[in-house]
Design brief:
The protein is of the alpha/beta class. Strands 1-8-5-4-2-3 form a 6-stranded parallel sheet, sandwiched between helices. It has a two-stranded antiparallel sheet with strand order 6-7. A hairpin with a 4-residue loop joins strand 6 and strand 7. The protein binds 5,6-dihydroxy-NADP and zinc ion.
């Protein structure tokens, strides 16, 4: 872990009432496009609060960004940006709206076919419009990172891209804005943040004790507050902890200088692209089986995880690893997020098309060793029935 870059320019305004700071955060002369999802931002009053904080600036709106944002919808926003000469974007919503805004920021000034941004994973982004976000759903970490995932419905393809040019300039995190979330989205958010930490932590020992301790702190916090966030939705301290934990889970800090394994996310994306499952549902299905499949390669870290996060101290390393995986599955289930393909009416006959799709997206050498092949993923899905 000796050599690494850690760069994160996103400014965070955290706490109740912080939307009022938009007046300072957005340039005075900006021509702003506010992007949002379905109707939740309007219904909850967050959109009105945002617009009032923007004062006399020229502001237009683009609504209708769906969960798992689609290229097709986002290209309509791109057209609006070009037509109206917008020069600043403001995302108001969850990960889908923020991811979608990242794509719009890059695509609006892209020369060439905008889908190439996804095909090249963002390597071809040379410029992007500046943007900020107002987060309403703690889960993805998109509010403080440079990644996004976009779905092209017509191709049934859900692909990620990354670029230093799509870090948000700022993100407003007001925990009270999460009070209106449906419980399903709260459970999803806890699972997503948990899996983000796991995929940067549960690999092999890398002489990175502080990254490990940070990761374990985030995991422990999620196990402590996850259930409470569901049963006590207007508890400010709990929602604030959840929001900050989810942000820290994927802002680059804990992943700096250590091996990472994003195989669960990549296989999960295929489940969403083909069967429209929520992002976190796909992770809850795949992760426990992936950990079992990779038990030998991950044994040292599984034992460490079991001991430090779940207090598992007895048994052989193999037994302790099994117990840690069982705890993980039970945790997801306790949050109301089901962990079996059959829970979502999927079965054996759905597996082959998922594997083909994974292959067609070039996801053939996943994991911290690059040895999670489509065959391994097939076994993982079979174990998830
Ligand atoms: O569309 P509206 O009406 O706004 O409703 C949304 C949506 O239906 C609703 N919602 C959001 N805030 C609300 C609210 N409802 C009531 N009150 C509020 N305060 O919640 C629903 C889900 O929203 P969405 O943004 O889709 O959820 P999430 O934040 O979980 O984002 C998921 C997307 O992020 C991507 C996923 O793949 C998926 O496309 N990810 C992005 C990552 C990144 N950029 O780093 C990392 C993640 O691994 C993830 O892949
Ligand atoms: Zn995720």
């Amino acid at each position: 872990m000796n050599n690494f870059d850690f760069y994160n320019p996103t400014r965070i305004a955290f706490g109740e009432g912080k939307i009022a700071e938009l007046d300072k955060l957005v340039p005075q002369d900006a021509k702003v496009l506010v992007l949002f999802g379905g109707e939740s931002a309007r219904r909850t009053g967050t959109l009105a609060e945002v617009k009032s904080s923007l004062g006399n600036r020229q502001v237009s709106e683009f609504g209708g960004i769906e969960p798992n944002p689609s290229f097709e919808t986002l290209m309509k926003a791109v057209a609006q940006v070009r037509e109206q000469n917008v020069d600043f974007l403001l995302a108001v919503g969850g990960g889908s709206v923020i991811d979608g805004t990242k794509f719009v920021a890059a695509a609006a000034v892209f020369e060439g076919d905008e889908w190439d941004i996804l095909l090249q994973g963002g390597n071809n982004i040379k410029r992007a419009l500046p943007f900020g976000s107002v987060l309403t759903l703690p889960a993805t970490g998109s509010e403080m990172n440079k990644g996004a995932v976009v779905t092209r419905k017509s191709l049934k393809a859900k692909l990620p891209f990354h670029s230093d040019l799509v870090f948000p300039q700022f993100s407003v995190l007001d925990p009270t804005k999460t009070y209106t979330l449906p419980l399903r989205q709260v459970g999803n958010g806890v699972v997503d943040a948990f899996v983000h930490v796991v995929e940067q932590y549960l690999t092999y020992p890398a002489q990175a004790p502080v990254q490990d301790r940070f990761a374990e702190g985030l995991l422990l916090t999620l196990t402590e507050i996850g259930k409470q966030a569901l049963v006590d939705p207007e508890n400010y301290e709990i929602r604030a902890s959840l929001m900050w934990t989810a942000t820290l889970a994927l802002n680059g800090l804990i992943g700096s200088g250590v091996p990472q394994d994003w195989s669960t996310h990549m296989l999960g994306h295929e489940l969403t692209a083909l069967h429209n499952l929520d992002h976190a549902q796909t992770l809850a299905i795949v992760l426990p089986s992936m950990l079992r499949e990779r038990k030998a390669e991950k044994l040292d870290k599984l034992v460490q995880y079991g001991e430090r996060v779940w207090d598992i101290r007895d048994g052989t390393p193999e037994e302790r690893a099994e117990a840690a995986i069982a705890k993980t599955r039970n945790f997801f289930e306790s949050l109301g997020v089901k962990t079996r393909l059959s829970d979502y009416d999927l079965g054996e006959s759905d597996i082959e098309s998922l594997i083909e799709s994974l292959e067609s997206h070039g996801m053939v050498a996943l994991g911290e060793h690059g040895d999670i092949t489509p065959d391994v993923c097939r076994r993982v899905l079979q174990a998830s029935l």
